Amino acid sequence: MENNILLHLAIIIFFSKILGAISKKFKQPPVVGMLFLGIVLGPTFLHFIEPEAVINWIAQIGVLFLLFEAGLETNIKKIKEDSRQAVLPAAGGIILPFALGFLLTYFISNNLSQSLMVGVIFTATSVSVSVMTLIDLGKLKSLEGRCIVNAAIIDDIVGILLLTFIIGLTPGSIGENSHITLSVVKIIIFFVISFIFGLFILQPFFLNLKKILLDNVVVSLAIAVVLLYSWFAEKAGLAAITGAYFAGLFLGQTHHKHAVQTGITNIGKSFFVDVFFVSIGLQFDLFEIDAHPLYVIIFVLLAIVGKMVGCGLGAKLTNFDMTRSFRVGVGMIPRGEVALIIANMALAKGIISTNIISATILMVIISAIGTPLLLKFGFTKLKRKTF
Predict the structure, then answer these.
(1) What pLDDT, in 10s, does the model give residues 164-177?
(2) What sign does the dihedral 91-113-360-338 (CA atoms) show?
(3) In 3D, which of 322, 356, 316, 324 has the Cα closest to residue 113?
(4) DSSP 304
(5) pLDDT tens digit string along 329-377?
(6) 62-90 mean pLDDT
């Protein structure tokens, strides 16, 4: 299989661009074409390409580039205001999905630990699909775009805390309660060090690159910063994408922002990002899902409706009009690497059964395919009447 990796990558890049262009021709986001390509090339249909280690690694870098670009687009002067606007949508996107996931699973399995874990899986938001679509629509800088990214960051942090807490309370995990405190401390340290390093070392360094004759390597240094922040976030118990977002946040405040953005966008969208979206479809065989069909349908519906209604309601309470609330709610629907990481971790610890993994896989694919379509509808067909 390793001998074919170059051929596989060539096929992924070539056809992702072709299908992306076809998607655009039919006025659909390119993401949709890439996801379908993964499903066709993967075990569901042709079984031609498997998600090998190299492809998975490239896909992970693609996610980091996406969130880094989102960070670059964020105006740090508006962070306080944006975060305030994102708090209620994020809260709604945690409380309602968690409650729905918990009640559904508890009603069927009567298993407290498993039900709590499904609740956590429902809270996870993978904003990468929404970010790609918002970039394609030219709406990442919009009020809704900024709100979606900030709310997803909040959801990520709370989701990890919930995961740690539930694992600590699971039978057989005696002595892990101290790990909850340790995790909280690690997260606090991450934010403190990230802000200190970003404001007092990173920004001055990039602002003075010409003085130390390094102006021509700005994109390479930016990539190094993305990887460093992502590594640090993982060490703190957060998702790597959180670190990538903060790296972009700080570099976006320097006069190198445009050069970095152009370089990262060219590198990311030419290769890494395409591989990420195709890899989602490569990971699963849709014909081998072993959960009861009715359970899977209800699972996916509640996951989607819970996020959309919860976040949309939070946005409405933040004084957004109905159209903007709909856009925010839809933008928070996608589940991806975060939900899969949580599910796999829970399965490894014996907290959930394999049928929940199957349902989670399908939820990831359907939410990833449906979100770009709904976001496009929200921004192009629905017009704001108030606010």
Answers:
(1) 677 766 655 444 55
(2) positive
(3) 356
(4) H
(5) 999 999 876 787 788 778 877 888 888 888 888 888 888 889 999 999 9
(6) 81
Query: Could you tell me where the DSSP H helices lie in the chain?
Result: 5-25, 30-41, 53-73, 79-109, 112-123, 128-137, 143-169, 177-197, 203-207, 218-235, 240-251, 257-267, 273-282, 293-317, 322-331, 337-348, 354-380
Domains contained in the chain, CATH given: 53-380 (1.20.1530.20)
CA distance 311 to 317: 10
d(CA 319, CA 315): 7
Maximum CA pair distance of the chain? 65
Rounded to the nearest angstrom, the gap between the alpha carbon of residue 282 and the centroid of all alpha carbons in its chain is 18
Q: Shortest CA distance to 124 belongs to which of 303, 249, 3, 328?
A: 303
Using the 8-state DSSP alphabet, how is residue 140 labeled?
Answer: T
Highest mean pLDDT among 70-79, 90-99, 134-143: 90-99
> Could you tell me which of 206, 193, 240 has the C-alpha nearest to residue 68?
240
Q: Which residues of 102-134 are buried (b: 16+ CB within 10 A; e: fewer)?
A: bebbbebbeeebbbbbbbbbbbbbbbbbbbbbb
Residue 237 near residue 164, CB atoms below 8 Å? yes
User: What is this structure's pTM?
Assistant: 0.78
Spatial CB neighbours of 24, under 8 Å, sequence gap ≥ 6: 30
- In whole angstroms, what is the distance from residue 110 CA to residue 196 CA? 47
Backbone angles phi, psi at 383, to 5 degrees: -110, 140
Listed ranges 24-33, 77-86, 180-189, 249-258; the one with the highest mean pLDDT:
249-258
